[in-house]
Amino acid sequence: MPRVNSSLIQYTNVAATTVRDIAESAHVPFLVSVAVLSLSITKNVQLLKANREECFRMVEQIHEILCAIVKQYSNLQMDGVLPPKLLHDIGNFAQTLQKLHVFIEAQQRMGKIRQFIKQLDINLQIRSCKTEMQIAVDTFRVQSGISVPLKFSELKQDEEERHKELLALLEANPDLTKSEQGLSSVTGTLSSVGNSSGSLSMLPGCPQIFHGRERELQELVDVLQDDEARIAILGPGGIGKTSLATAVLHHEHVVNKYSSRYFVPCHLASTTRDLVAVIANHIGLEPSPNIARKILQHLTYSEPPLLVLDNFETPWESTTSRSGVEDFLAHLAEISHLAIIITMRGVELPGKIKWTQPFFKPLKSLSNTAALETFLDIADETHGTEEIMQLLAMTGNIPLAICLIASVAVFEGCPATLNRWEREKTLLLSNGHDKRSSLDISIMLSFSSPRMTSGAQDLLSILSILPDGLSDPELVQSGLPIPNILASKSKLIATSLAYIDQGHRLKVSVPVREYMQTNHPPSPTMKFAFRQYCHQLIRVWTDFRSGSSGNTLFPIMINAGNLRAVFLDALTMECQDEITNIRSALSFLPFCRIANHDHVIVMQAVSSRIMHWKEDAVYGEFLVESVQSMHVKPDEIDAMIRTGNSYFQSVPDTKKARWYSSLGSYYFDHMNDVSLGLHYFRGALDLADKGADNYPSRTGRWALDRIASILNHQGNHSEARSFAQKAQKYAEYLGDPLAQAQSTYVEATCCCGLSDFQSAFMLCQRARNILLACGLGDGSTYFYIKTTEVDIHIQKTEYKEAEDITLSIIASHSPGKPATFSYGFALLNLALINIQTRALEETINQNLKTAKHIFSTVVPVPLLVLYCDTGIADLALREGNLRCAQSQFAKCFALSCNLQAIDASLFCLERLADHHHRMDSLTDTLQWAAVFLALSYKTNNKLALHKALQCLGNVFVCFQRGHWDSSEPVSCGI
User: Fold this and answer.
1) Strands across the sheet with 260-265, in order?
2) Taking each helix axis from N to C terminus, what angle separates 882-898 and 902-912, rounded to the nearest 10 degrees?
3) b/e string for 534-560 if b means 16 or more Cβ within 10 A?
4) Which pTM value belongs to this model?
5) Domain Novel STAND NTPase, which positions (predicted)?
6) What is the DSSP code (8-state) at residue 670?
7) What is the rounded CA–CA span in Å between residue 814 and residue 595?
8) In this structure, is residue 838 part of a structural domain?
9) Which of these, 537, 562, 538, 541, lies nearest to 551 by C-alpha position?
10) Are residues 56 and 129 in the same domain?
């Protein structure tokens, strides 16, 4: 028996720990899975008694690959965003590790006799693992330029050399495994409300509409109380720099300190001479030779003066005059008692002057509250808040844009203004003739700035169609034909045409994006280049979305808006890569469903182009997606299904299985037809297994899960559990931890139906741990597990624990974002919990109303609308409104029977059969109790059976005693 190579285990653990630290410090897909699986393999491989030599050989290969990954990551220095090709290779490696991990664990659980019986299968599995591991090694060797060692001594030497290189690399790069993404965070957005005066003798008036800048105003006033204040108010055009400066000029504390206050608009001064002349005019000096010296003398001998130089970028940004302008500004700064404020587009500070520290941060767009207050000050409160918020979303909360759009709305109303925006975009806000009354002119001035380059203009054009923006790694890897693209990024930030958001992504505000799309759209070459990058991202998602993929969702999540915009743009025109665009768009749609993003418009765009490709396999994918997600009008669905049945007659069973699975989803999820849904899922299972030569397949695993869910829904909990357990075996064979977690969760719900809450809770914990081990702790499956745990706590009357979990789900929903399924479900659960904990009726009603709206319109789910109605009935019962409660429970019970929703039926019967509630006559209550007992027995629900017997016994006791305090019972037909 080969001895345990302790140094190899130690070296591999160091490499795996390094990879894990990198994964935790940056959102690198797959690396969490790679690290966790590697550490588990090194632990378990030491306990093996069979196949040790082959497994240790693969551990050596794992060590080599881990070191190669760390080395490549350190060379790229891309803050976690790796090229799609490298991501794809790491994803394949993660799947290989998962298979090896499953094999080793199975070997540990297997006795000698079973190993002997399964020897053929074991040999096939280990041969598959060795082949895939060798492919992974060869792939990373090619990328790293490493030659292949031939002898064991060379392998041993390589192992030690790699370990030394890794330690040296970590010593030279101490920040490699720390989260230090200190990119400049210029989070401005755009435009300015400021009316600087052209008067030579008067200050501009104090702004009358001034919201959201109280903190900045106080900060500037405080700085001006000290001597030698040198302040630059920076930010994009229209952001409110001039308004803030004039508000400072009129502040009481500033007026008291500075006897002389000057406001000098510099937008007409293009040279140093022009700047000197305009300053002289505004401080009251006559034109003369040596006027610059006279300005300095005048300010030197004045009482403490405050000089505001507005729009200072005009004289400063020209490279021919910049040095002279900075020299004159430096001379002004030498006057110790003179306070200087400049306002300037962009984020760059003029040189040759010591600015007051800490520097005043560039202005950001207004908060939602301040934007709304600004709008209402102009357009009053006669408009609907929802319509106003739609308009404000078009402005990016930029003060100038808000003022201009409010001025239109005050005369035309919000609906008409929204319609005009759809037609005219920024032209709607550009009726004026200067930058303070025309948004287009304001943006155009920044776009044509001498600081801009052709590369920066090209980058701005492509960013105009990318609402999610791009990170630095994505800029570099995108393949955009822009030389030195990061320098172009710096130009956009310097002119404040773009900004860096909190996620360190380069973004462009809504008004600038609309202006660019209208006036300077990206070229076809630029669009084509970026589409190729999008196709690579989608390929990573499709290849690994259901395997041991770590957080493969992350690159798609942060680019979801970009992908949607790019595919919509491509599908509205003739493109040389049309078939690839259609295929990528169809692959993108499942993500949209998972993330609850709008996907209807994408499918409509695909539908408009797909008819040209009816002979291609992509047409089958289109049919599956259309039916499964109901991307078809109700009056067209029958024709679509007939077309699909005809199309899939002549395709392999594996593809036909996917079609049957989509039909099962359609009939069960959308039509509430349980029998047809079950029929097609069973058909999908048979076809999937047949098409895969009776080996487990992903479609078969999915069908098993859905069959289990439907049977559980019908009350056949024991049979459902057996299907869920079989699905877990499929997932284990496939090496698919996400699927394993999903199937484990389904089994947990079956145990809940059987009132086996201990097993249900243990299964939830197991599913949760699987997801966490693979870095998938924030997806939809994790949410469903948490809601099942809530249900377990409710059934055990542990309301405090249930409420804590539910509140954490609600807190994760971002305010202002569209309502999601998870948010609505959490509100429903919270309402049901609060009914039992005697919370305020008004609060419960509001949560039920919101949840019902979500499940009726936003995310239509008839079953959950039913649960909302049962909650309304339960609340009426709690408040003593017995007639309303009885009527509502009876209606809900009838509907639950139609939907075959056993849990809802039992919920209603439990209330109707309880004589303590006295909603019915004693005779009717006896009938309800009998139905409750029959349904509990039929579904083998032990807890419900116990409650039904208790209800029945209590009714018999009442009959025996001959008393029932109900003068006017409500009749009920069952």
Assistant:
1) 230-235, 339-345, 305-310, 260-265
2) 150
3) bbbbbbbbbbbbbbbbbbbbbbbbbbb
4) 0.66
5) 208-345
6) I
7) 14
8) no
9) 541
10) yes
The three-state (H, E, C) secondary structure of 757-792, written as one string = HHHHHHHHHHHHHHHHHCCCCCCHHHHHHHHHHHHH
Q: What angle do CA 893, 854, 811 make, to 5 degrees?
A: 110
Specify the CATH number for the domain of residue 288: 3.40.50.300
**pLDDT band for position 926 (50/70/90)?**
very high
Q: Is residue 552 included in any domain, yes or no?
A: yes
Q: Which of 462, 492, 520 is the last residue of a domain?
A: 520
Domain of 95 in residue numbering reads as: 6-172
Pair 19, 160 in one domain: yes
Concatenating the DSSP letter of every residue in 174-216 gives TTTTS---------------------SSSPPPPPSS--S-HHH
Q: How many CB atoms lie within 10 A of CB 324?
A: 16
Is there a single domain that holds both residue 114 and residue 24?
yes
- Using an 8 Å Cβ cutoff, are 341 and 194 in contact? no
Q: Is residue 136 part of a domain?
A: yes
pLDDT tens string 7-35: 788 888 888 888 887 877 666 777 878 88
Q: Compute the distance between CA of residue 325 and CA of residue 352 in angstroms, rounded to an integer.
A: 10
- 226 Cβ contact partners less than 8 Å away, ≥ 6 residues apart: 356
CB under 8 Å to 657, separation ≥6 — which residues? 683, 684, 685, 687, 688, 691, 697, 699, 700, 703
Q: Which residues are CB-contacts of 593 (< 8 A; sequence separation ≥ 6)? A: 599, 629
Among residues 613, 648, 678, the one where a domain terminates is: 613
Tokens of 253: 């504390």
Q: Check if the beta carbon of residue 408 is closer than 8 Å to that of residue 378.
A: no
Please name the helix (run of DSSP H) or strand (run of DSSP E) that holds residue 548, with its range, or none. Answer: none
Q: What is the CA radius of gyration of the chain?
A: 34
283 vs 195, 295, 311, 805, CA distance in Å? 19, 8, 17, 66
The structure tokens 């976690």 sit at 80
Strand locations in 214-277 (E): 230-235, 260-265
